[in-house]
Backbone:
């Protein structure tokens, strides 16, 4: 799995928790943070290997100074829904493949999803742990634990907007042919059972019981 070149808009506590997590740092090659507060800039720079641009994330000219073609993931983590919406729109315009934003207004989050701007995470359910899960499993399955059922393991994989499985029902994927059995789905707000009729939308994280990762092609294509 190639490491991510990450751009974060908003250097608040969520960004700091994420960047202080060794599991996240393992999958990141480069980090750029846009943050207007100079005190937050100093706190983030103390974490090491983080380039902080001191400025307003709503200022579109800032992104002209960043080589957006090299960015592989954008996290919009400011405390303003309209700014996060703008950041995801800019990221999509530059064809950034992984785009995740935090929103407090469910209507705006639905607009983000319908316009395919990225994966909306709705507060107050959002936590650094949720974003960590999406980032770490969007390109490849993540094994959670060994299950006492023969050699089965529990995997988590997040649906990307370009995946073959997007907007498909679980039953249409025929995962059982690969010895894989969907158990649960995290839909951005809560864990729900993975039923055959469940439609997989971008950003949904699917928990699958399987012996190995052979099911990946049925989801990612």
Residues:
């Amino acid at each position: 799995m190639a490491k991510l070149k990450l751009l974060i808009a908003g250097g608040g506590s969520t960004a700091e928790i994420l960047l202080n997590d060794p599991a996240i740092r393992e999958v990141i090659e480069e980090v750029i943070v846009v943050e207007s507060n100079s005190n937050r800039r100093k706190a983030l720079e103390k974490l090491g290997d983080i380039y902080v641009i001191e400025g307003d994330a709503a200022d579109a000219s800032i992104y002209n100074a960043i080589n957006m073609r090299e960015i592989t993931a954008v996290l919009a983590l400011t405390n303003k829904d309209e700014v996060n919406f703008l950041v995801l729109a800019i990221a999509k315009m530059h064809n950034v493949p992984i785009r995740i934003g935090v929103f407090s207004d469910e209507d705006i989050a639905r607009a983000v999803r319908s316009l395919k701007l990225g994966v909306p995470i709705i507060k107050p359910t959002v936590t650094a742990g949720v974003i960590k899960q999406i980032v770490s499993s969007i390109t490849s399955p993540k094994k959670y634990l060994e299950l006492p059922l023969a050699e089965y393991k529990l995997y988590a994989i997040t649906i990307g907007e370009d995946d073959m499985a997007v907007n498909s029902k679980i039953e249409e994927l025929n995962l059982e042919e690969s010895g894989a059995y969907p158990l649960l789905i995290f839909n951005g707000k809560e864990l729900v059972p993975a039923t055959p009729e469940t439609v997989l939308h971008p950003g949904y994280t699917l928990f699958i019981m399987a012996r190995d990762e052979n099911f990946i092609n049925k989801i990612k294509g």
User: Anything to note?
Assistant: The CA atoms of residues 45 and 92 lie 27 Å apart. The helical segments are 13-19, 22-26, 38-45, 81-93, 106-114, 128-137, 216-220. The longest strand covers residues 28-35. The two ends are 16 Å apart (CA to CA).
